[in-house]
Amino acid sequence: MSRMNGMNVKFGYRDNFLGDIRPVDELFAQNVIIEGNRGVINAQGMRHKEINDVLRETAKKGVTDITVNNVFGQRYIGTRLYFPQNHKPLTIEINKFPGNDLGAFLNGHKIIVNGNAQDGVGNTMDDGEIIVHGRAGDVVAMSMRGGKIFIRDNVGYRTAIHMKEYRDKLPVLVIGGTAQDFLGEYMAGGIVILLGLSLKNGEPHRANYIGTGMHGGVIFLRGNVEQHQLGKEVGARELDDADKKIVAKYVHEYCSHFGGNAEEILSGRFIKLLPVSLRPYGKIYAY
Amino acid sequence: MYSYLLPEFMIERLENRCIRCRVCERQCANKVHEYDGELDKLFSTEENCVGCQRCVVLCPTNALYVRPRVSDYRPNSSWTRDKMQNLKKQAETGGVILTGSGNDKPYRIYWDHLVLNASQVTNPSIDPLREPMELKTFLGRKPDTLKINFDEGEVKIESELHPNVPINTPIVFSAMSYGAISYQAYKSLAIAAKEFGTLFNTGEGGLPVHMRKEFGNNTIVQCASGRFGVDPEYLNSARIIEIKIGQGAKPGIGGHLPGEKVSDDIAQTRMIPRGTDALSPAPQHDIYSIEDLSMLIYALKEATNYEKPVSVKIAAVHNVAAIASGIVRAGADIVAIDGLRGGTGAAPLATRDNVGIPLELALAAVDKRLRQEGIRHKCSILAAGGIRCSADVIKAIALGADAVYVGTAALVAMGCTLCHKCYTGKCNWGICTQDPYLTKRLNPEISSKKLINLLKGWSHEIQEMLGGMGINAIESLRGNREHLRGVGLEEWELNVLGVKGAGE
Ligand code: SF4
Ligand code: SF4
Q1: Could you report the predicted ipTM of this complex, rounded to two decimals?
Q2: Residue of A143, A169, A276, A283 to mutate, interface with B, max B Cβ within 10 Å
Q3: Domain total for chain A?
Q4: Sign of the torsion angle spanned by Cα atoms A274, A190, A132, A22
Q5: Do both A230 and A136 map to the same domain?
Q6: What pLDDT, in 10s, does the model give residues B462-476?
Q7: What are B325-366's pLDDT values in tens digits?
Q8: Domain span at residue B454?
Q9: Is the CB of residue A220 less than 8 Å from the CB of residue A270?
Q10: Which residue of B has its CA nearest to A182?
Q11: Which amino acid residue places its CA nearest to atom 6 of ligand 1?
């Protein structure tokens, strides 16, 4: 229930997320079944905070294999599972439709979605794995720094924006379908593989401004794009043998998740998109 | 080097005092002074001088004078020397003119047009030396109502409380990243914040891992558009998390830390490869609306188990009051407002000097609006940008702030002389540079003491002024405009500030 300020209804304040949250003990008792290291959560009717409360509670009980059923749009699944003292990688299977920011700030867990995902999958993700048996919305893998994301179908706008890498952390994003505009904008590191499997024979990718402002990392793109679809900070190259190995490895991994014939996919034409400069904006100032 | 530019400073060396010790030569990173052994004489390249006064104060015999050079073009109040010189630089390079530090243009400084009240006869003043005077401030969301239960002599708070962070004085060091400033300067801020029981802000440059345990409790960490150094451990090590939307010195634009400044340590703290440009995009690309902002606020609360207040920092711009209302409704626990005179390590001059509105007006407008909407208690307000002394702090609190951020003031305490060349990486005071020859001029042991003294001195002055008003807790002054009067202000300005004219 929204609580008004008692003066003017127009200015009432409603807490979109935290109003009427039920106690976690109660929810846990009613909705979680645990058998050994496996747990099943029925998320029917839960708010996002409630799901994450229950997930955290379940994880704390030592369960490492968790299935969450009846998920409909709740956000941040996997975000509140940072246990510095007692880190155990969890596997979380989600049926069916998680909400925005799935696995945001994720640190080492594995999330499998049997359905579509929304915006912000793997936002600023640090480590772990997200596998989506369906499509995903906008800003997938934004500022992702480590781990792997596999999306079976298409993704929306601004995918892999400002993705980065650091020392042994090399994020990988594999997309089965195609992407919308601004793929890899401001990209600073990591690997993006776009397979274009949803396109008909010869149909080009539609995204514009691919790699605008890109200054690190690499995009492997299967299928056709025109020069004008690329940002001016990227150059297109042929794959060398090392590149081919990388692509083959992740395409096989993709097929192990979603099926499909890896060799057939690999026989398609790939190009490699690279930043032309690590310092795209190095020369715009007068000192 | 540019051709045909007038030197900005003039260097005079009193030859009869100079003992040829060559201190000036060693101290100036701009290579102004040079010793000629054959002639046994020092010469100066005036064009290089930025007027930082380092050589002047270190010359053992006071032989040096550095003054603004008065020679000028034909006087013209429209085409000032600055305008012409900058234009000439651009004509040679086609570049964007960069600058550092805060706006130095003569916009009205409202602090200097506001005066404070004091008790006379009808209400006694309080002497802080002998009576309790509370400066402790709690940052974070407050509950709508407070339900208290008295049970067998025990008092228990029944209402659910939101995380709040106590600070011993309403002064917090504002965001200055490791990278923009030296490690020594950064560490000095951390030590001072810890010693005094207040907070420092990491800016967008991350928090070095080895500092987390010792200083985490006194740290505000930023999550900005570049997401540099942001991982769950970083977020959870801090006391408050701040989403940086904007900065007073450069509203609406991002930041570029040039690759040359990304050394090993900085690369490690920001978690990026060494030598690459650290580009912070202008917007956060997952935030295009209040709803999106809300999404990030709650993502951060989720990532930290709802244990930490989340702050949202914006630049003071038109409609700031409506924006702040949206921010509070989006779930922020703290709103930080950075005004027109806020500082920066590097910003385009055109933006720094022309974009945004003065803090005083923005702060008053935000406080008024949140009160009207009945949601002022849902957030704390941190006021930033142009706080120069304790009187500015107390006036800011009377205009509605819970506490203030100080950046430039802290740098000045450590030695900065506002030469505005932070972006060159050649700060002779060892603050805004990564050159080890220069940074070792700053000893965190000593400069943190100076910062602590600053906090101590200001806090004391605030207590004196509060006592003078007959108030014994800083909380009672918050938004209490009855204790302010305007002098020399127009009707509309008094209206925006919500302050009466002096004598009324
Ligand atoms: S830049 Fe500073 S140190 Fe160098 S000559 Fe000028 S005032 Fe002296
Ligand atoms: S520091 Fe002073 S005394 Fe020493 S060389 Fe320079 S001007 Fe002469």
Answers
A1: 0.90
A2: A143
A3: 2
A4: negative
A5: yes
A6: 999 999 999 999 999
A7: 999 999 999 999 999 999 999 889 999 999 999 999 999 999
A8: 137-501
A9: yes
A10: B285
A11: B49
